[in-house]
Amino acid sequence: MPSLSILARGERLRERLLADAADLRITGFQSPAEDEKEEGLSLDRLTGLGAPHIWGVRVLDDTLLGFGIFPGDRLIVNRAASHLDNKLVVVDLGDGYRVRLVQRDLFGGRWLKAADPIVPDVQLDGEEIVEIWGVVSWVVSCVSS
Amino acid sequence: MSAPRRVFALIDCNSFYCSCERICQPELKRRPVVVLSNNDGCVIARSSEAKALGIGMGAAYYKVRDEMRRQGVVARSSNYPLYADISNRVMRVMAEMLPGIEVYSIDEAWGDMTGVADPEALGRSIRERLAREIGMPVGVGISTTKTLAKLANWAAKKWKGTGGVLDLTDPIRQEKLLRLAPVSEVWGVGHRSAAKLTTLNIATAWDLAQFDIGTLRKTFGVTMERTARELRGVSCIGFNEGPPPKEAIGTSKMFGVRQTELPPIREALAAYVSRAAEKLRAQNSLCGTIQVGLQTQLAQVDGPRYANAVTMALPAPTDDTREILALAQRGLSQIYRPGYPFSKCSILLMDLSQRGEMTPDLFAPKPRPGSEQLMKVVDQINQREGRGAVRIGRVPAKPSWAMRREMLSQRYTTRWDEVIGVRG
């Protein structure tokens, strides 16, 4: 990490760094736009990030390509969601957290399907209790680098 | 119409630090876990399996390391950024579900359940939500006074049949538990007073509640009197309005390795002063006096020992890291003696006043121009980019004196490149 010395040029720093905190106001001619101003876009508000039950996780490898999810993608996981059918879920299958798709079979039984079809399905309501850690609600993917 | 009876809940997390580690590292769910203090010195938290293996609270790590390895116990250095974030999540869920809460420590909070129709059901749903949404196991004790709620919480954890929630608002159930609970488990009864109480034939919480209040006050003081009254169901300790701003702010840490030379100690002091000044600004205070301390390991009987501290007044109350640090470094020069293996230095900011509360001294030296804004910007950057992103030039990025944290887990909830990993 490069180190930075603190210089007493507070004013200039303030102008450059505090612009978003200190609201810039029109001092001359007022515009009706001032009354209709809205808050800017926020990914936090869109995804719910910041709420206690919303968690972020990171995709470690390319085993989720079958779901269109790439290595390094960030997933937003909702741990309060209860509807699981046709959702991507994060589960602990005994060897770390894994992402699976929940699907019902013809008889109504629920199965956990992996992105890679070679991986055998796991029954969700079977003998062995599988704990659902959360439901994936968003995929954050960087496509420009 | 009379006011409804007060109902308090005490909700506290089971083995909080260990549980935090387990939430983010599922493989630890199936193994006993302990968390170590700063510098990996001693055991400060144990999962129930680790407790069952007989690992003592406060046990020195180097003494129990081999035994723990044999038993398959996993040790972790304390990961405070993680614990603070999880604590915050827990507290926010509680605040959402209860009419009022008072955060008592990082892992426990008082809840106001006054007027709640079915406190036990609410306690259970809080417990279930915390387990599902955060993965934190908690115990809930409910009663008509804080002391009784705390005792109910103890019982909820001790007896599995309670399912982790115990409603002790009913006087008959209160008496039952009081007769069972040893007096040492009562909130506010320490080791020493418990021993003293035994000589008065007070062995259970019930004995204490029934004892003559006047005698208790005379022998132990008003605190014990209050405790006894609370056990009788008379609420004496209400909800806090929130703690007042701290009257002194201190930062002191052990060095990872002993330091004899002055330059690395100066670096450490600069880092501690930066942190203390940050806390000072966070509560909007200015400080007028500082105390710098330096010491060797005092518990070590053989070898040279030295400890000294100096108290100094700032020319004018300030919260500027640079002003405080300049004075602190002068103080360090005064107390430093070459040749000693120093283990710790400390800074204490005292004589605090709120910004704007005092009339500025006309004859005091003028503060540096733009100081207030600069410090605000520095705090803002550090909040966003991580502590130490902007720092005093003397503090190195990877200091030689830094605390040992060899088994530190990742910052799973506060850094995007360190969050929990998933696979297909």
From TrEMBL, chain A:
<protein>
    <submittedName>
        <fullName>DNA polymerase V</fullName>
    </submittedName>
</protein>
<feature type="domain" description="Peptidase S24/S26A/S26B/S26C">
    <location>
        <begin position="28"/>
        <end position="136"/>
    </location>
</feature>
<dbReference type="Pfam" id="PF00717">
    <property type="entry name" value="Peptidase_S24"/>
</dbReference>
<dbReference type="InterPro" id="IPR015927">
    <property type="entry name" value="Peptidase_S24_S26A/B/C"/>
</dbReference>
<dbReference type="InterPro" id="IPR036286">
    <property type="entry name" value="LexA/Signal_pep-like_sf"/>
</dbReference>
<dbReference type="InterPro" id="IPR039418">
    <property type="entry name" value="LexA-like"/>
</dbReference>
TrEMBL record, chain B:
<feature type="domain" description="UmuC">
    <location>
        <begin position="8"/>
        <end position="190"/>
    </location>
</feature>
<dbReference type="GO" id="GO:0003684">
    <property type="term" value="F:damaged DNA binding"/>
</dbReference>
<dbReference type="GO" id="GO:0042276">
    <property type="term" value="P:error-prone translesion synthesis"/>
</dbReference>
<dbReference type="GO" id="GO:0006281">
    <property type="term" value="P:DNA repair"/>
</dbReference>
<dbReference type="GO" id="GO:0009432">
    <property type="term" value="P:SOS response"/>
</dbReference>
<dbReference type="GO" id="GO:0005829">
    <property type="term" value="C:cytosol"/>
</dbReference>
<protein>
    <submittedName>
        <fullName>DNA polymerase V</fullName>
    </submittedName>
</protein>
<keyword id="KW-0742">SOS response</keyword>
<dbReference type="InterPro" id="IPR001126">
    <property type="entry name" value="UmuC"/>
</dbReference>
<dbReference type="Pfam" id="PF13438">
    <property type="entry name" value="DUF4113"/>
</dbReference>
<dbReference type="InterPro" id="IPR017961">
    <property type="entry name" value="DNA_pol_Y-fam_little_finger"/>
</dbReference>
<dbReference type="InterPro" id="IPR043128">
    <property type="entry name" value="Rev_trsase/Diguanyl_cyclase"/>
</dbReference>
<dbReference type="GO" id="GO:0003887">
    <property type="term" value="F:DNA-directed DNA polymerase activity"/>
</dbReference>
<dbReference type="Pfam" id="PF11799">
    <property type="entry name" value="IMS_C"/>
</dbReference>
<dbReference type="InterPro" id="IPR025188">
    <property type="entry name" value="DUF4113"/>
</dbReference>
<dbReference type="Pfam" id="PF00817">
    <property type="entry name" value="IMS"/>
</dbReference>
<dbReference type="InterPro" id="IPR050116">
    <property type="entry name" value="DNA_polymerase-Y"/>
</dbReference>
<comment type="similarity">
    <text>Belongs to the DNA polymerase type-Y family.</text>
</comment>
<keyword id="KW-0227">DNA damage</keyword>
<keyword id="KW-0741">SOS mutagenesis</keyword>
<keyword id="KW-0234">DNA repair</keyword>
<dbReference type="InterPro" id="IPR043502">
    <property type="entry name" value="DNA/RNA_pol_sf"/>
</dbReference>
